[in-house]
Amino acid sequence: MEKIKKNMTLKNRKITFSLEAADAGEVYLAGEFNDWNPTGLPMKKSADGKWKKQISLPPGQFEYKFLVDDQWVEDPKNEHTCPNCFGTWNSLIHIAP
């Protein structure tokens, strides 16, 4: 009997993060997925004042925040949060397999 191998490779998914911050001069995305590098993922501002960044993530759960003009900000459109070691909150995103 021949054994059938299943492809158990989990594929990354493209995720778009966005933040409405029309008055911001610069916005970065940081989280567990980039070792909290505060300037590693710069976001682009669109004409309507929204900042966006698309990244590829594997399935799992990740903590993240935005760095808006040198101030850490939670994602106001995401109700899923968890406390961090600084006494504030991080946003959470869950990527399904």
Structural write-up:
With 97 residues, this protein is mainly β. It has a single domain (13-95), classed as Sandwich (Immunoglobulin-like). The protein is built from no helices and eight strands. The chain has strands at 13-20, 27-31, 44-45, 50-57, 60-68, 71-73, 81-83, 89-95. The strands form two sheets. Strands 2, 5, 6, 7 and 8 form a five-stranded antiparallel β-sheet that branches. Strands 1-4-3 form a three-stranded antiparallel β-sheet, with no helix packed on it. A hairpin with a 4-residue loop joins β3 and β4 (50-57). The chain is globular and about 40 Å long. The two termini are 30 Å apart.
Q: Key features?
A:
Immunoglobulin-like, 97 residues, disordered N terminus, 3-stranded antiparallel β-sheet, mainly beta
Largest sheet data: 5 strands, antiparallel
**Structural class, from secondary structure content?**
mainly beta
Number of distinct beta strands: 8
Distance between the termini: 30 Å
Q: CATH class, anyone?
A: Mainly Beta
Overall tally of structural domains: 1
What is the H/E order? Answer: EEEEEEEE
Morphology: globular
- Strand residue content: over 45%
CATH fold category name:
Immunoglobulin-like
Mind telling me the CATH superfamily name? Immunoglobulins
Total number of helices = 0
Q: Using the 3D structure, state the CATH architecture.
A: Sandwich
Can you summarize this structure?
By secondary structure, the chain is mainly beta.
List the helices and strands and how they pair.
Blueprint: E1 13-20, E2 27-31, E3 44-45, E4 50-57, E5 60-68, E6 71-73, E7 81-83, E8 89-95
Antiparallel strand pairs: 1-4, 2-5, 3-4, 5-6, 5-8, 7-8
